[in-house]
Known about the structure:
- 12% of the residues lie in helices and 23% in strands.
- Residues 1-62 have low confidence and may be disordered.
- The two termini are 32 Å apart.
- It has helices at residues 5-14, 83-90, 151-157, and strands at residues 69-70, 73-74, 77-78, 106-108, 120-125, 128-134, 162-166, 174-180, 183-189, 195-201.
Amino acid sequence: MKPSIACASVLALSLAACGDRPPATVDAAAPTGRSLDGDPAAPPPFDPATATAPPVSGSLRPAVVEDVITFDGFGPAAFGADQEQVRMAWGADLGDAVPSEPGGCYSLTPQPPGDAGYGIAFMIEADRFARIDVRNAGYAAPGGGKVGMDRSDIERLYAGRIEATPHKYVEGAQVLRVREGERALVFETDTAGRVTGWRIGTPPQVDYVEGCG
C-alpha cells in the first residue's frame, strides 16, 4: 500500500532530514550514549527505561523536526489508531514486532537500526497506538521541549503546567509531567537536571515507567 500525500509529508520531515553529516541545527551539547537498538544483527526491544540519546554524529539523527509529534499523535496517525496507520504515517519499515499475547503491549521501532538508532518508538497496546517514546534531540515535543535541555528550559516552556516527581529508579533525577486534556507529555531528567528522554500519549500507557516491560 502506498503512503498518502499526508503520510509522505511526515516521512519527508522525519526521515529525509537524516543525512550522513550532523546538521548544524542540532545542539552539539546534547548527551551521547549507546545505540537504542543495539546490535543490528539482533536488536533487543526498545527499552525507554535504560536507553540513552544517540550521538550527535549519528547518521540517523535528523535536524530539529517540529509539529510532527503532537498531543494528537504522530502526523496523520492519531492516538487510538491501529498499527497500520502508524506504519503509514512513518512511511518506512517499522519492523515486525508483535504482542506476546492478543492485545498485549509492544513497540514499533524504525528499521534498520543503524549504528546510532533513530531514538523513537511507537507503543501499541490493546491494538491501538497509545504512546511515543523519544531519545533523539532532533524531535521537538509540542511546546518545544527536547532531549538535552535543562530543567529550567522545560520549566520556562511549560510554566505553571508541570507536575514534578522523583524518578522511580534514579536517585536525584526527576519526572516532569505536563497534562493536555486527556493526554500527557512526560520528560525524564538525569541527576544534573538535563532531559534524557520524553514520551507523549494517553494514560495509562504514557505513565508506564518501564515501557512495555
